[in-house]
Amino acid sequence: MNAVLQLASEGSFLLGGDAMWETSKIGFNFSFAPGLTKWMIVFWGVMLFMIVAGVIGVRKKALVPTGWQNFSEWAVGGLTNFFTKMIGPKLTKTFGPMLVTFFIFILLSNYSGMLPLNFSTEEGTLSLSNLQAPTSVFSVTAGFALIVFCCVHFAGFRENKLGYFKHLISPVVIMLPFSIIDEIVHPFTLALRLFGNIHGEETVVEQLGTLSVVTSGWVPACMEILGVLFGLIQALIFSLLAAIYISEAAEHE
Amino acid sequence: MDIDFAQMIFAITNFLILLVAMYFLMYKPLKQTMEKRHDKIKSDIETAESLKADADKMKEEISAELAKSRETAQDIINRAQKTADAQKEEIIASARAEADKLVEKANAEIKEEKEKALGEIRDEAATLAISAASKLINQSLDDDAHKKLVDKYIEEAGEVQ
Amino acid sequence: MDVNGFYALSAALAIGISTIGPGIGQGLASAKALEGMARQPEIIGDLRTNMLICLAMMEALAIYGLVFAFMLFGKIA
User: Fold this and answer.
1) What are the chain C neighbours of B1 within 8 Å (beta carbons)?
2) Which residues in chain B have their CB less than 8 angstroms from residue A97's CB?
3) Which domains does chain C have, with CATH numbers?
4) CA B56, CA A232: separation in Å to the nearest integer?
5) Which of the pair, C75 or A238, is modelled with greater confidence?
């Protein structure tokens, strides 16, 4: 494992030691650097918020829900119904909680990128900037996509047993490499889409803020209002596409 | 584009922790609460329906009972009417019979009186006739013989009539 | 123009050109979807979900361009 990671961090992971293109040349830098970064704190903050809000939401167990309990029941029940309509009750029973958690977590971490709570004391002065959303880190979205990838093939294997692998060579055997590429591209685009949207939005806000003194206040604010919509849509798209991939894998003949 | 495997592992582990926590702390209790509510509403609806069915049944029973009692009342009235009619007829018939009897009795009495009177008149007439005749012929006859003679005569006259 | 200049130019071109196609495609798709919604308001829910999926698929193309722009931007020394 360490040797592989060593190779990876040297940038010759994909094409061998004396390949003409090193991986860093095609844009992917693999590394293994344990250490606490700022978005990890945000990640834990979002986790803590979700757990605390969830526990407060279900604490009372009242038969006539009010207030926060009503809201959390509406959110979780509504999302579960949405996914049930999408992929059917059987798959929702297994993957519903995961998809709902994905949606809420991605939504909250997208929005966490708008909180101006990032204290930095560089250059001797205290300055506030937006937090870095966990979803604007490619490692995180890649990790999420990896979870989805595992779930997709778990669902497919559970529903169709060994017959599941037949879909790789479904029309003709020659399709095998393309099918494999297809299977890999799905989660890859899932990760890239989320990362690109959130990171792009954050970068745009950051760059607009530095353009000029006149526009530095309200133009990024307008962009962030748009970002509220984008964050919601991206969270929905991620969980929706994950659900669709899972149901597609489960429905294979 | 940087992919840090340590960060990736961090994200995956923490997400799985979050998933497990959310499942056991929120999703499951929430589902239980919703299921409990679902069951309660269902049982409430069922109870309401059974109560309504009971009420309907009772209403039907009551209306049937009412119809029956009404019928009975009508029956009683009819019977009373009939009895009254019969009694009336009986009373009228008996009254009529009584009246008839009275009339008959009166008639009989009248007849009797008349016959009695006629007899008296006949006797008187015979006596008068005898006295007149004795006065006329001045001849005294045996009273009894005369009377027999006169009676015979009158009877003959009656037969001739 | 040195190498950094080419990197910057190609980054701009990558994101600029890659947004043209998805922009037109998303416009057409949304227009048709909205038309359908106006014509049959009773299937708005289904249409919206499917429209979002289609838009996400098209969005992926623009995102590839954006990612490449980021990569090229990162190469500017």
Assistant:
1) 67, 70-71
2) 19, 22-23, 27
3) 26-77 (1.20.20.10)
4) 53
5) A238
